[in-house]
Automatic annotation (TrEMBL):
Family matches, as Pfam families: DUF5606, DUF6852
Residue ranges, compositional bias (Basic residues): 174-183
Taxonomic superkingdom: Bacteria
Residue span(s) of domain DUF5606: 3-50
Region (Disordered): 135-183
Domain (DUF6852): residue spans on this chain: 53-118
Protein name, as recorded: Uncharacterized protein
TM region positions: none
Length: 183
């Protein structure tokens, strides 16, 4: 079931297909017979992609796509206008691990309404397209190159600047003391 780009917009009935994204939001087309189009502003409209919606479960949340798959194979789907007990009994069949305290009958009605909209669409029976992965082949590990650095040659001081070893030893302790005082 390929539900990518199918969204529900809060405050708007039905389901919508996201056609194009512009600066301020999305251009949506309804999935009903009228095929009405609207611009959903991201700052004012709340949209939820159907492939990302989950339903509260007892242990962990249940993906809506899994519930819709089970509804597809169910013997009969009740009408969304049926009474709450019939809807709850049906939902126990297709999502037995849902949390009955957190999932309201209005949520079940909405899911059944969405199923009735989607079941006749070709994308409902279409598989999700995933990126083709290249076959993994095992190769012999490449030997890592060992890089050794050659020490840089120190420039020999000019004859005028040349210091005797005694002068160098005398300067070294003074430099350490100066560094300690600064710290």
């Amino acid at each position: 079931m390929n539900l990518q780009a199918i969204v529900a917009v809060s405050g708007k009935p039905g389901l919508w297909k996201a056609l194009v994204q512009n600066k301020t939001g999305f251009i949506l087309e309804s999935l009903d017979a009228q095929k009405t189009k609207m611009v959903a502003n991201l700052s004012t409209a709340k949209m939820a992609a159907l492939d990302e919606i989950t339903v509260f479960g007892e242990d962990e949340d249940i993906k809506l796509t899994d519930i819709l798959e089970r509804m597809k194979s169910a013997a009969s789907v009740p009408d969304a206008k049926a009474d709450g007990k019939a809807l709850r009994n049906f939902f126990r069949e297709v999502a037995p691990e849902h949390d009955e305290e957190k999932v309201y009958s209005s949520d079940i009605k909405k899911i059944i309404t969405w199923f009735n909209i989607l079941k006749d669409l070709p994308l409902f029976n279409e598989e999700v397209k995933t990126a083709a992965k290249a076959p993994v082949t095992e190769e012999a590990p490449v030997a890592q190159e060992i890089v050794t650095e050659t020490p840089k040659k120190a420039k020999a001081p000019k004859a005028e600047e040349a210091e005797t070893p005694a002068e160098e030893a005398e300067k070294a302790p003074k430099a350490k003391k100066a560094a300690v005082k600064k710290a």
